[in-house]
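3.2 Worked example (two chains)
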Amino acid sequence: MDRKTSAKLLLLWTGLFFSVTTLAMPTQSADVASLINQRLSHMKDVAGYKAQHHLAIEDLPQEAKVLANSAAEAEKLGLDGESVKPFIQAQMDAAKAIQYRYRADWLSSPETGWQPAPLEQIRVKIGVLSTAILTGISQTLTQDGQFTDRAAFMKTVEQANLKDSDKERLWQSLRQIMLKNGTHKNAGMSH
């Protein structure tokens, strides 16, 4: 990547970071669901870019990088990194499922009049949202001690090609996240 492209990406990331953190700093569990929904809303662009460039949907080295970086970031935010990993994996699996479903639909009915955003640009947006999601989880667990409103979560996380089973896995893995000190205030709460 040349310097000009690097500078543009840095400016884009900085602008996105400040707009997402200023406008969408989560303070309650509904905000976390909204941020997850925003993150998943970018999967059509990811699927389209990968289709145009003949790239596989599954990118295991990228997934391993995201998982490791997310666990480390979670630790910095006061979360237990190991308890975050199943949630991060659930997000990545839901994202892949959405992409596969778009690609399958496009086999019989190609999308017309639409162009996906560049993958690097999308990954910057996803990265900013991922940080905001982890921040929101930490705040919710610290302030409220738990995620309890499954109905609101299921209603808020609503994307084309996202199935209820995908959302249920996200919800269940979200509820298993613990604070770094090992507290898990969700124990005994209804699912």
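3.2.1 Second chain
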Amino acid sequence: MTDAAKTGLIEGEDGRTGCFWHGNLEDYRRYHDEEWGHPVTDDRRLFEKICLEGFQSGLSWLTILRKRENFRAAFAGFDFEKVARFDERDVERLLADKGIVRHGGKITSTINNAARALEMKAEFGSLARYFWRFEPTPDERPAVFDYQTLRANPTTPASVRLSRDLKKRGWSFVGPTTVYAFMQAMGMVNDHIEGCHCRAKIERLRAEFVRPV
């Protein structure tokens, strides 16, 4: 087993140690360094993140990341008020769009979830207020991040709770693994691996972050 497989860490070309999964690919490393785990409250960005995590199901995140601008163009910048009005002609357009993942179930799910997002905003005032209610409490998070445990079971009790609640509200493609990836991406948890140069920065950002609840 390689050191990266044991620790989850690799050394970048700049000499800094980071999470292994960006593989020192420039666009992937930039996403890791500048976006992943940063706390998010913007509703459109939250909707984009949870939809793209749904599209990622069964694929690599790198595939989705490299198509993200195409997804943004195809789905009206993930403005869920606009996406909720998509009709069958839009579905046909999206199924013909080679720049995105042409999966009928995931496309119709995104349109459905946009309508559910509108309902959520009406009830809670914003998507951010809803989602941040599910942030794990300190006693639900390990004192030391356990990379190997998470690698074997990429869900948590908090992601299971959020997944169940979203499904009750009519959302789709929001299983607990997908939801946990969303929680990681939006900064609800800090899963930069111990020893990653980003971990302390994210801890600081999360400490300074004003929760929208």
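3.3 Remarks
The chain has a mean pLDDT of 92.
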